[in-house]
């Protein structure tokens, strides 16, 4: 059975909260993550779990989590990965009039959620990844 993650705006998901350490999260998730660096710009290790990545600040505290397409992520009773991008953008525009939209998706600073889609011009394009982040993450 697929695990369902429930996003809490600007806080985290389920029992995982921004500000926790890698060890704290490992105890909550009850799994050992792989430690990776996705590119040369990463200054800190990233914890890679089966269906999400955890990003840490300089103090080793969780500041963002990126979910991959194979996860089930809920926000305000919306299954984010089951929606087509264009429909999800419309839903978020109603909730957040200051939604930042670009060529590869959108970011809601109000809710601490970003959606990535590689080819959003396709009518039936599905979401590639969802990032949730603490306030000030993109400052």
Gist?
With 139 residues, this protein is mainly β.
Overview of this structure, please?
With 139 residues, the chain is mostly beta strands. It has one domain (1-139): protein yfey like fold, CATH 2.60.460. It is built from two helices and 13 strands. The protein is globular and about 40 Å long. The N and C termini lie far apart (38 Å).
List keywords for this structure.
mainly beta, 2 helices, 14% helix, 13 strands, eight-stranded antiparallel β-sheet, 139 residues, 35% strand, five-stranded mixed β-sheet, protein yfey like fold
Strand and helix layout:
Elements: E1 4-8, E2 12-13, E3 16-17, H1 22-29, E4 34-36, E5 46-48, E6 52-56, E7 62-68, E8 72-75, E9 78-79, H2 85-95, E10 100-102, E11 105-108, E12 113-116, E13 129-133
Parallel strand pairs: 1-8
Antiparallel strand pairs: 1-2, 2-3, 4-5, 5-6, 6-7, 7-13, 8-9, 10-11, 11-12, 12-13
Strand content: 35-45%
Backbone CA Rg: 15 Å
Write out the strand line-up for the largest beta sheet, numbering strands in chain order. 4-5-6-7-13-12-11-10
Portion of residues within helices: 10-25%
């Amino acid at each position: 059975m697929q695990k369902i993650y429930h996003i809490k705006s600007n806080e985290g998901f389920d029992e995982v909260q921004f500000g926790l350490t890698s060890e704290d999260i490992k105890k909550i998730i009850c799994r050992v993550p792989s430690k990776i660096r996705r590119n040369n710009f990463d200054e800190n290790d990233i914890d890679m779990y089966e269906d999400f990545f955890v990003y840490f600040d300089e103090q080793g505290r969780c500041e963002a989590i990126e979910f991959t397409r194979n996860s089930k992520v809920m926000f305000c009773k919306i299954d984010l990965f089951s929606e087509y991008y264009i429909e999800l953008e419309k839903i978020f525009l109603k909730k957040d009039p200051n939604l930042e939209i670009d060529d590869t998706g959108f970011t809601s600073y109000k809710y601490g959620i970003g959606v990535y889609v590689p080819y959003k011009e396709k009518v039936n394009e599905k979401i590639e990844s969802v990032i949730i982040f603490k306030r000030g993450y993109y400052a």
